[in-house]
């Protein structure tokens, strides 16, 4: 009797265990990752599944797709997974991979704060950041895999899943239980902005009118692209819906985002299909053996998965890649094994009225004071975008307009137009008000003059002040890449950081420019152009053995580049830097009262293999100091000014407009 009781008790435990396992093991991995947060994630079962997730993660940070992570693993399977940790084969974001695993780890970590779960999640974040293209898109597989997998992938919401994850992290919503470091959050902010920028650029124009998106876009041209044989270039109903829902979730949307949403909603309404219902025929075991479309006037609206780019007509494909007009025309395997109609756009149409009501006022929003405008990423200002603030400012104003920019990373390509004269961009702090973009010569591919289009911030207007800002070209060492480009008159850059590599600052035009108390860094020719420019109390930092300046001073100019009371520094390994070389043969560059580091070469100047430049350039110094100041070893065709000659290099002589005591433009900074 006692034995029977024990057996009954053990059987009950086993049955209970089987029942508990069945709670998750008979579900799909997608269902489990989407399971509502709660005490189950504190269970030993959840922890064991998390252990599986750790085993499946590759060292690069991502996971393979279509793996039921919750299924028990044998010891031999565990050893095999450990053996392929370094492999990058099949690591992807397709079909929810990587995103789902990170979501699951976050839910478990909130209940069971195991540092391994946190570290795996953060590795996943780094993987996503590394996988992003420079244009903001994501491929289906990373590292890149040959074929259509390199296309920017909206298919199955791959890119939208990534951007939603990054958005939750950057907005600090606590949706995820793990918070990256401040440095990583800054990268996430930029990556999200780039991703949205990519979405806006890939929205398809049909006869000049914005419509929706395609499942794939070419990673270089951004044009619609083909994937599998039956996935031809086409407009997508389902993927486009989730792109729009992402855009609608953005607080304080820009005019471009608002326009994209409005256009997509108009398109969704235009292409919806009514009076047609999906019907399935099942066999005796419940498997779908046929899908067909049945006329039904009461059926809710549906949308085709694929529509022609030119006329929005739905089409259907078999593995032969030949378009068919109806679902009935394709073979059973593809007809029954693929979702050809979707109702996801209805989610957009349902949410749109409230979104439109909430954002209509934002479209016409004007600053309270048109001469004191505030930009803030969190929506607390008049604008959330610097370019929007500039575009909304008065043209050719008589009084100074100040655009105050609150701390934040502004991933924008900013242009101060010629008509935006008398304007000041003033950051809240030099260190934390950051304007950054990442265009560079070969990325743009606009021919031999591509350099001049790579700017992060371009100033075309006169009477402009830039103050307390970091202006950065974040493309890295990839050739010519301008951070700040100025070729107008009476422009002052005060207490700013100009960051980049080759061609950081394009100080050009025939106007006069004033750089004060600023930090400028770069590798090659990182201060170049034709302007008359006065650099005072600036730090000029070389990141590589190369050239600091490449002036192209016009022949008739009285002055070119003048550096006064500046400090020239360099990275530790840098030891061979020239003060300048002539981009054009009448280059003028003078260093006065500057502290020259040991990285400055004894000869000082280079003629860029232009023999005539030895006669036409004006390269000079006066009263410099430091290990890099060796006047007796300078090239013979440069000058060491005497006291009388140096007297003319005053701020008023170089930048002034008036011979009288009338107040000069630079005195109002």
Automatic annotation (TrEMBL):
Record-level GO BP terms: cell wall modification; pectin catabolic process
Any single Gene Ontology cellular-component annotation: cell outer membrane
Annotated SUPFAM superfamilies: Family 10 polysaccharide lyase, Pectin lyase-like
Residues in Pectinesterase catalytic domain copies: 373-655
Leader sequence segment: 1-22
InterPro entries, per database record: Pectate_lyase, Pectin_lyas_fold, Pectin_lyase_fold/virulence, Pectinesterase_Asp_AS, Pectinesterase_cat
The protein's annotated pathway: Glycan metabolism; pectin degradation; 2-dehydro-3-deoxy-D-gluconate from pectin: step 1/5
Record-listed E.C. numbers: 3.1.1.11
Catalytic activity: [(1->4)-alpha-D-galacturonosyl methyl ester](n) + n H2O = [(1->4)-alpha-D-galacturonosyl](n) + n methanol + n H(+)
Keywords associated with the record: Aspartyl esterase, Hydrolase, Lyase, Signal
Active-site residues, Swiss-Prot/TrEMBL: 525
GO molecular function (one): lyase activity
Keyword Cytoplasm appears in the UniProt entry: no
Domain of life: Bacteria
Xref: NCBIfam families: pec_lyase (TIGR02474)
Family classification: Belongs to the pectinesterase family.
Protein's name according to its UniProt entry: Pectinesterase
Organism of provenance: Polaribacter reichenbachii
């Amino acid at each position: 009797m006692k034995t029977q009781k024990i057996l009954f008790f053990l059987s009950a435990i086993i049955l209970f265990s089987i029942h508990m396992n069945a709670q998750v093991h008979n579900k799909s991995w997608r269902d489990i990752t989407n399971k509502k947060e709660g005490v189950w994630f504190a269970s030993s079962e959840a922890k064991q599944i998390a252990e599986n997730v750790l085993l499946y993660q590759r060292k690069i940070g991502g996971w393979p797709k279509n793996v039921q992570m919750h299924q028990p693993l044998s010891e031999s399977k565990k050893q095999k997974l450990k053996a392929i940790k370094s492999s990058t084969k099949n690591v992807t974001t397709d079909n929810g991979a990587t995103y789902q695993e990170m979501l699951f780890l976050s839910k478990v970590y909130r209940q069971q704060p195991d540092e391994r779960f946190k570290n795996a999640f953060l590795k996943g974040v780094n993987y996503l950041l590394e996988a992003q293209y420079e244009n903001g898109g994501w491929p289906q597989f990373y590292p890149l895999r040959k074929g259509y997998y390199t296309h920017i992938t909206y298919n199955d919401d791959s890119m939208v899943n990534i951007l939603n994850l990054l958005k939750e992290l950057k907005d600090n919503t606590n949706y995820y239980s793990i918070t990256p470091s401040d440095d990583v959050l800054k990268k996430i902010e930029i990556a999200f902005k780039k991703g949205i920028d990519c979405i806006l650029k890939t929205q398809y124009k049909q006869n000049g009118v914005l419509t929706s998106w395609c499942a794939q876009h070419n990673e270089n041209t951004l044009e619609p692209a083909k994937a599998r044989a039956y996935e031809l270039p086409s407009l997508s109903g389902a993927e486009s819906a989730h792109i729009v829902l992402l855009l609608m979730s953005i607080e304080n949307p820009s005019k471009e985002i608002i326009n994209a949403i409005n256009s997509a909603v108009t398109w969704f309404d235009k292409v919806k299909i009514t009076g047609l219902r999906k019907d399935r025929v099942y066999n005796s075991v419940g498997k779908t053996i046929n899908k067909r479309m049945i006329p039904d006037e009461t059926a809710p609206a549906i949308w085709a998965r694929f529509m022609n780019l030119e006329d929005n007509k739905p089409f259907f494909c078999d593995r032969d890649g030949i378009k068919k007009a109806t679902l009935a025309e394709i073979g059973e395997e593809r007809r029954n094994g693929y979702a050809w109609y979707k109702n996801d756009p209805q989610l957009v149409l349902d949410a749109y009225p409230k979104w439109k009501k909430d954002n209509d006022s934002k479209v016409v929003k004007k600053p309270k004071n048109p001469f004191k405008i505030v930009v803030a990423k969190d929506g607390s200002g008049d604008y959330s975008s610097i370019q929007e603030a500039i575009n909304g400012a008065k043209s050719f104003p008589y009084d100074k307009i100040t655009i105050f920019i609150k701390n934040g990373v502004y991933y924008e390509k900013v242009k101060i137009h010629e008509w935006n004269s008398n304007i000041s961009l003033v950051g809240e702090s030099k260190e934390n008000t950051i304007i950054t973009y990442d265009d560079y010569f070969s990325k743009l591919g606009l021919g031999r003059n591509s350099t001049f289009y790579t700017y992060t911030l371009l100033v075309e207007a006169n009477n402009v002040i830039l103050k307390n800002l970091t202006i950065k070209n974040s493309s890295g060492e990839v050739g010519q890449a301008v951070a700040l480009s100025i070729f107008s008159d009476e422009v002052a850059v005060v207490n700013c950081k100009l960051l980049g590599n080759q061609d950081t600052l394009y100080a050009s035009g025939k106007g006069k420019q004033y750089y004060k108390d600023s930090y400028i860094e770069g590798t090659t020719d990182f201060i170049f152009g034709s302007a008359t420019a006065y650099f005072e109390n600036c730090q000029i930092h070389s990141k590589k053995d190369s050239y600091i300046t490449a002036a192209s001073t016009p022949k008739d100019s009285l002055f070119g580049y003048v550096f006064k009371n500046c400090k020239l520094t360099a990275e530790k390994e840098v030891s061979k830097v020239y003060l300048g070389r002539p981009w054009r043969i009448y280059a003028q560059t003078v260093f006065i009262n500057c502290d020259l580091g040991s990285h400055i070469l004894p000869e000082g100047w280079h003629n860029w293999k232009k023999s005539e430049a030895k006669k036409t350039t004006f390269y000079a110094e006066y009263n410099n100091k430091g290990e890099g100041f060796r006047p007796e070893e300078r090239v013979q065709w440069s000058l060491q000014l005497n006291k009388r000659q140096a007297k003319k290099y005053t701020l008023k002589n170089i930048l002034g407009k008036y011979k009288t005591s009338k107040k000069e433009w630079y005195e109002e900074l």
